Amino acid sequence: MKRGKVVNRYKLAETESKFAQIIWDNEPISSGELVRKCEEKFNWKKSTTYTVLKKLCQRGIFKNEDAIVTSVITREQFDCIKSKEFVKESFSGSLPKFLAAFMGEKKIDKEEAKRLKDIIDKYIEGE
Predict the structure, then answer these.
(1) Right CATH for 3-75 from 1.10.10.10, 3.40.390.10, 3.30.470.10, 3.30.420.40
(2) InterPro entries from the entry (predicted)?
(3) pLDDT tens readout for residues 59-89
(4) Does pLDDT of 29 surpass 80?
(5) Contact 74, 84 (CB under 8 A)
(6) pTM here?
(7) Is the per-residue pLDDT at 127 higher than 80?
(8) Is residue 62 within 8 Å of 72, Cβ to Cβ?
(9) Going edge to edge, which strands form the sheet with 68-71?
(10) Is the peptide bond before 96 cis (omega within 30 degrees of 0)?
(11) 83 Cβ partners below 8 Å, 6+ apart?
């Protein structure tokens, strides 16, 4: 798979993201229940729900087996993948550059600094 395809695989439009959240919040969810929820939330027809579901299943984010929809990757895994891609593309993969840009002039309290240090220490220790 080409690099560009991997990036696009996890890029969701705003509506796709809201749709995905419905699944993550309710899984396992029957496809019928998903249709009902999408009709309530987005005013979608059944065909629209199935079209978007099929698209996200083809991208390997969800699966629909025996009319039960579940995730292939968790919301946390999805967010992690997207975050890594963002740092890679926007900051040449440099976490220090990302943190410097993110922090800017923002000050963090001692507890936040300790949490960041703990994360780094665990990474260094190989946990």
Answers:
(1) 1.10.10.10
(2) BlaI_family, WH-like_DNA-bd_sf, WH_DNA-bd_sf
(3) 999 999 999 999 999 999 999 988 888 899 8
(4) yes
(5) no
(6) 0.73
(7) no
(8) yes
(9) 29-30, 68-71, 62-65
(10) no
(11) none
